[in-house]
From TrEMBL:
<dbReference type="GO" id="GO:0005737">
    <property type="term" value="C:cytoplasm"/>
</dbReference>
<feature type="domain" description="CREG-like beta-barrel">
    <location>
        <begin position="9"/>
        <end position="144"/>
    </location>
</feature>
<dbReference type="InterPro" id="IPR012349">
    <property type="entry name" value="Split_barrel_FMN-bd"/>
</dbReference>
<dbReference type="Pfam" id="PF13883">
    <property type="entry name" value="CREG_beta-barrel"/>
</dbReference>
<dbReference type="InterPro" id="IPR037119">
    <property type="entry name" value="Haem_oxidase_HugZ-like_sf"/>
</dbReference>
<feature type="domain" description="DUF2470">
    <location>
        <begin position="168"/>
        <end position="236"/>
    </location>
</feature>
<dbReference type="InterPro" id="IPR055343">
    <property type="entry name" value="CREG_beta-barrel"/>
</dbReference>
<dbReference type="InterPro" id="IPR019595">
    <property type="entry name" value="DUF2470"/>
</dbReference>
<dbReference type="Pfam" id="PF10615">
    <property type="entry name" value="DUF2470"/>
</dbReference>
<protein>
    <submittedName>
        <fullName>Uncharacterized protein</fullName>
    </submittedName>
</protein>
Amino acid sequence: MQPTADFNPARVAKSLLRRRREGALATLLRGSGGPFCSLVNLATAPDGAPILLISRLAVHTKNLLADPRMSLMLDERAEGDPLEGARIMLLGTALEARPADIPLLRRRYLAAHPGAEAYIDFTDFSLFTIETSAAHLVAGFGRIVDLAPTDFLTDLAGAAGLLDAEPSAVDHMNVDHLDTLNLYATKLIGAGAADWRCTGVDPEGLDLQAGRTTLRLDFPERVTTAAELRDMLKRMADIARSAA
């Protein structure tokens, strides 16, 4: 089935990746190779790739250490019939994080799941990243499409300056500009007022979270440096205030 003309599958897929905080993880049972499905919490790396924090005591982790092939289903959790909401199935491999990547992945995971601070350093827990090879998106009748990773992951080429500045930018927004984050959520996205906090920024947008509710603020243009990010955040704030 081909997508309809008014459907942007890349945008829908990216939104699901950035906003979902849990998903159904399918792995292959050790020995038998049979299917095994479990519920996991997740966050995203700067490019949108899922991050998992899982225990080696769990069956799914033992399965992945024996065979890293997996699939991950994320869904919109729409009211009413759940099949009417968008969902995406990611196909790929789950690999334990390299030591050099752990600080970034740890920070982004804890931003999405602050409660994990209580156990993230337990010796049996490890961070994993998912390297996707393909995705299958279903977003309603006439909106079913297969996607390549380049369709739904964010290109980080040339954005080293932004990635270096992300931790301080997120802290700055959460300490000094909570009112601005609330304006983004209410005036630019249409959400209700809440204790909105920034959980991450990347070249294409900013992630907001209040409790278990998540939002994605897409930038109108790509940003790759700290200076461009400052200008973009001010620009979006001005737009939000003009809509107040």
